[in-house]
Design a protein that fits this description.
single chain, Methylamine Dehydrogenase, Chain H, four-stranded antiparallel sheet, 29 strands
């Protein structure tokens, strides 16, 4: 199975970014949807998904966008999307009934590849290791986090048996904020973070308490990013962001970094400037985080974050094969990181 890895080595990306300052360039806005799903295939091909059954696609680096409302799903909230090329993508509809749909013709038509009418079903995020193997995490059902897997590129899905799913504590769930609370840990495993009254990191058979703010329904971890995840014994360096989305300017316990796969955590000297729903490694030193009140950037591996934009976004992602970094948020807003 072919790994989806950037065409440029990450050390080269880091070299390119040295002595440059990032800024946020808004490409488009005004579409009647809140975008939380974002998948950047390469520097030119970008897919987004959001409220009101809406999916958007650009094949020229965000200059032009084609918007579609998936027929029959006009009221569905597609909170995550995974794209493999300009023609093939998978979207995830979150609430009961939960749906997963796939297109192979650039969004002209969509096939339902998964449907779940279980009471209380709420899907939170997708992650793919490669073009065949993927995973979806959902809120607890019967006291355990929902998990389903695919091994054929999302054409079919198999639910993990209830007794094999991770146990959830009372008031613990996942935030469907940006599609990034689950990430590949290495070639075989994934890691996810929870929030609410309790916030933890779930790694293989471990459940590790996070030092992030927690205790209320609005608090906890929203996003995790893992560095070097496809190297042998990879996934050692992680960053987790979140906070309290009801207090979007609060910097209290909203970001933590680990260099040993979650065993110990340190807090940034200068934290991101508020609640953050998404975080993304660009290199081992360069990190972006976004939230309701703006975008932060760290050039020193998460030790310090600087506020580079007051524009609010839900999600930020780097190209799987390339160097482009895109953001998306409310009111159909899509932006790109530029360097000066």
């Amino acid at each position: 199975m072919r790994k989806i890895l950037p065409a440029f080595p990450f050390f080269f990306i880091s070299f390119l970014l040295q002595a440059q300052s990032p800024s946020v360039e808004v490409l488009t806005s005004g579409t009647n949807t809140h975008i939380r799903g974002l998948s950047v295939v390469n520097d030119n091909v970008v897919w987004v998904s959001g409220h009101n059954g809406t999916v958007g696609r650009s094949t020229n680096g965000g200059k032009n966008w084609k918007w579609v409302v998936v027929k029959g799903f006009e009221k569905i909230d597609f909170r995550d999307i995974e794209a493999f090329d300009a023609s093939t993508a998978i979207i995830m509809g979150v609430e009961t009934p939960a749906y997963i749909l796939k297109t192979t013709d650039g969004g002209e038509s969509w096939k339902v590849v998964y449907e779940n009418k279980t009471k209380g079903m709420f899907l939170d995020a997708m992650e793919f290791w490669n073009e065949q193997a993927g995973i979806v995490i959902g809120d607890p059902v019967d006291g355990r986090f929902f998990v389903t897997r695919t091994f054929d590129g999302g054409s079919s899905w198999q639910d993990i048996p209830l007794d094999k799913r991770p146990k959830a504590d009372s008031g613990e769930a996942c935030f469907a904020a940006s599609g990034t609370n689950i990430r590949a840990l290495d070639n075989d495993e994934a890691v996810f973070v929870s929030g609410g009254r309790r916030s933890r990191l779930f790694k293989r058979d471990e459940a590790i308490d996070l030092p992030i703010i927690q205790g209320k329904e609005t608090t906890g971890a929203n996003s995790i990013s893992v560095w070097d995840r496809f190297k042998k014994n990879g996934g050692k360096k992680m960053i987790v962001v979140g906070g309290d989305f009801s207090a979007d300017s609060s910097t209290i316990k909203n970001c933590f970094i680990s260099h040993n796969a979650g065993k110990t955590w340190f807090v940034p000297k200068t934290a991101p400037h508020g609640y953050r729903s998404c975080v993304e490694f660009v290199s081992d030193k360069d990190i972006f985080a976004c939230g309701l009140n703006g975008v932060d950037y760290s050039s020193n591996g998460g030790k310090d974050f600087q506020w580079i934009s007051r524009e609010g976004f839900h999600v930020c992602r780097i190209a799987k094969r390339g160097t482009a970094i895109y953001l998306a948020g409310a009111n159909g807003k899509i932006a790109k990181i530029t360097w000066k």
